[in-house]
Amino acid sequence: MKRRVSAEVIINREIAPAIYDMWIQPVQKLPEINPGQFIGVFLKDKSLLLPRPLSICEVNADRTALRIVYRIAGAGTHEMSLRRPNDGLGYVTVLGPLGNGFPLEKGEGKRTLLIGGGIGIPPLLELAKRLKAEKQIVVGYQNCNTAGFLQRDLAQYGTVHVATEDGSVGTKGNVLDAVRQKRIEADLIYACGPMPMLRAVKAYAQEKGIPAYISLEERMACGVGACLGCVVKTNQVHHHTNVNNARICTDGPVFEADEVDI
Amino acid sequence: MNTQITIAGVTFKNPVMTASGTFGSGMEYAEFVDLNRLGAVVTKGVANVPWPGNPTPRVAEVYGGMLNAIGLQNPGIDVFLERDIPFLKQFDTKIIVNVCGRTVQDYVDVVERLGDEPAVAMLEINVSCPNVKEGAIAFGQNADALSGITREIKRHARQPVIMKLSPNVTDIAKMAKAAEEAGADALSLINTITGMKIDIHKRKFALANRTGGLSGPAIKPIAVRMVYQAARAVKIPIIGMGGIANGEDAVEFLLAGASAVSVGAMNFVDPCTTEVVLDGIEYYMRRHDVENISDLIGAVED
Ligand SMILES: Cc1cc2nc3c(=O)[nH]c(=O)nc-3n(C[C@H](O)[C@H](O)[C@H](O)COP(=O)(O)OP(=O)(O)OC[C@H]3O[C@@H](n4cnc5c(N)ncnc54)[C@H](O)[C@@H]3O)c2cc1C
Ligand SMILES: Cc1cc2nc3c(=O)[nH]c(=O)nc-3n(C[C@H](O)[C@H](O)[C@H](O)COP(=O)(O)O)c2cc1C
Ligand code: FES
Predict the structure, then answer these.
(1) How far is residue A37's CA from residue A98's CA, in Å, rounded to a whole number?
(2) Would you state the CATH architecture of domain B5-296?
(3) Domain boundary at A98, A114, A130, which?
(4) Of the candidates B246, B239, B245, B238, which has an alpha carbon nearest to the alpha carbon of residue B282?
(5) Cα separation values, A243 from A222, A236, A246, B7, B129, Å
């Protein structure tokens, strides 16, 4: 039986203002993980009952530890940021891996474009590491304060291009401005980031006639497909729900852009 | 130690059930919980046709629980019978199907279809969902309407009928009696309590539906009180629910007068909660030398 497991916090450090880099070591060896899958993190504060969905950023080679990179967005992520290795609070309870992840096989041997916006960048790291393909990686940040987190990690696995809204680093503008300015050509896109960015990625992929796999976000409760809280509208009747929507936590979080109505 | 209970002639190996809508069709939790250990799996509400449900956000966390406005999304009775029932039949647990509808005829259609399925042990009729505009809760908040729909369903049902009551009423005892007099075989309560959450920074409702149903530990004292009042008012058995997280919570409901208990929102907090509750009940029975679980039902004293 699968269950929640306790995981020791190995590293938890701020890598940009309010953005933390955490490595955790669950008590059991991790199962096979697909890039783009996420975990549910449970908190000690009993007023915060529901799991916090956070993308798996990276897994170590022997699958004993995993990395999450998170932004302090509220009480739960704030509590996480206070965890210190080797003290009484130096562990978290997690459930996972959850969700489907990015389809690696679709991009194999192709010219791929990986696009990440802000706190959507983390899952691209494990993807870039595992994907056997030509990789152009475009990451967008708000401004020079946050610019650069995970950039060097990603550069190990592909060519990284940066865009910032204020133009302080890289291309001034959004990720697609950078794609156009750098004249990046691709056969397939993988993307994760805020909804306006994903809409633009979908439109761009349609314009170019190439497939795009996008990772979506929605408020969740169970994280395992039971409560039907986290749905996205789909263009076709979905095989599981039998209506025009799909569960982001289990049927996603990654969808082919053409499948979903965003 | 005997944990068996009987409700309307149906025997359950123990009183631990799943609350409708929080356990999918059992499939979603089968990798976390040994379904064979559960007294019953109560499935998500099913209607005569597929329902798409409400816009998102559909869920929000609040102090001590959560709000939901799923809007009874379900795949419809056809897919349910083809896929979900065969899945559940593989397990040694009782199947209780929760039924929803907009009109009396909608409910009757589903109830008749389920009548041909012997694997379904009981029907639970949801007349108390606060998140759909027509039907549903309208039947659950008015004693005459509740009595009318109960009678009509009893006329068509082949399995025993559980009426699921809404806590959003002033007199739960009156509603319980109305259902009993109209022929209900059992009652379940409570469904969620209507609530609201506002994101003060964005000045927006947390849920697209504006209001949602509150569930989780925050509602437990209200649920225990209502189970107690309903149990005093009627002779038919009661399935109690509302914020149950462990064996002690479950025993509290049994003492208040429930014959069985359902675990709802706490499944989301720990997917193994149903087994934790069962283990906790057994521990309590050993510790207090309770031989038969039925000795606990309604055993609270002044
Ligand atoms: C599949 C998925 C992957 C994610 N990956 C990451 C990641 O790698 N790094 C990261 O920083 N953030 C990620 N997020 C967003 C992250 O889940 C939220 O920022 C976090 O839950 C906020 O919790 P909180 O207690 O700090 O905030 P609060 O606002 O206090 O949380 C209140 C409730 O709202 C939920 N919630 C709040 N914001 C979001 C949101 N944006 N999406 C979904 N639920 C939310 C919380 O889970 C909680 O139940 C991801 C979300 C999803 C759905
Ligand atoms: C996400 C969610 C979905 C629900 N869906 C249904 C449903 O389809 N039918 C129903 O009768 N009750 C439904 N309920 C109500 C529960 O079955 C239960 O009555 C209520 O949540 C109180 O129990 P709890 O506090 O343990 O969650 C739902 C509750 C939640 C949280
Ligand atoms: S969070 Fe419950 S179905 Fe996705």
Answers:
(1) 6
(2) Alpha-Beta Barrel (3.20)
(3) A98
(4) B246
(5) 20, 8, 8, 35, 20
Interface test with B, best of A243, A244, A249, A262 (most B CBs within 10 A): A243
For ligand 2, which residues put their CB under 6 angstroms from it? A 227; B 19-22, 44-45, 68, 70, 72, 98, 126, 129, 164, 191-192, 215-216, 219, 241-244, 263-266
Closest-CA residue in chain B for A98?
B28
**Selected residue of B269, B272, B275 to mutate for chain A interface (largest A Cβ count, 10 A):** B269
The tokens for B87 are 């899945």
* Residue A144 shares a structural domain with residue A160: yes
- Ligand 1 site, residue A74, Cβ cutoff 6 A: yes
Q: Which residues contact A183 (CB under 8 A, 6 or more apart)?
A: none
**pTM metric for this prediction:** 0.96
Whether A77 and A168 map to the same domain: the answer is no
CA atoms within 13 A on the CB side of A228: 28
**B118-154 burial: b if 16+ Cβ within 10 Å, else e:** eebbbbbbbbbbbbbeebbbebbbebeebbebbebbb
User: Would the CB atoms of B29 and A220 count as touching at under 8 Å?
Assistant: no
Of A47, A220, A250, the CB nearest to B63: A47
CATH number at residue A120: 3.40.50.80
Which pair of tokens denotes residue A55? 């993308």
CB A146 within 8 A of CB A165: no
Residue A10: Cβ within 10 Å count = 17
Number of domains composing chain A? 3
Give the C-alpha separation, B274 to B219, whole Å: 18
Q: Residue B227: name the closest of B189, B264, B259 by CA.
A: B189
Give A242→chain B minimum CA distance, Å.
5
**ipTM higher than threshold 0.90:** yes
Condensed to tens digits (0 to 9), the pLDDT of residues B258-279 reads 999 999 999 999 999 999 999 9
Instruction: Quick: pLDDT tens for A61-115.
Output: 999 999 999 999 999 999 999 998 877 778 899 999 999 999 999 999 999 999 9
Beta strands of chain B (E only): which ranges? 5-7, 10-12, 16-18, 40-42, 59-62, 65-68, 94-99, 120-126, 161-164, 186-189, 193-196, 198-199, 204-205, 211-215, 238-241, 260-263
Report yes or no: A1 at the B interface, CB cutoff 8 Å: yes
Give the structural domain span for A245: 218-252
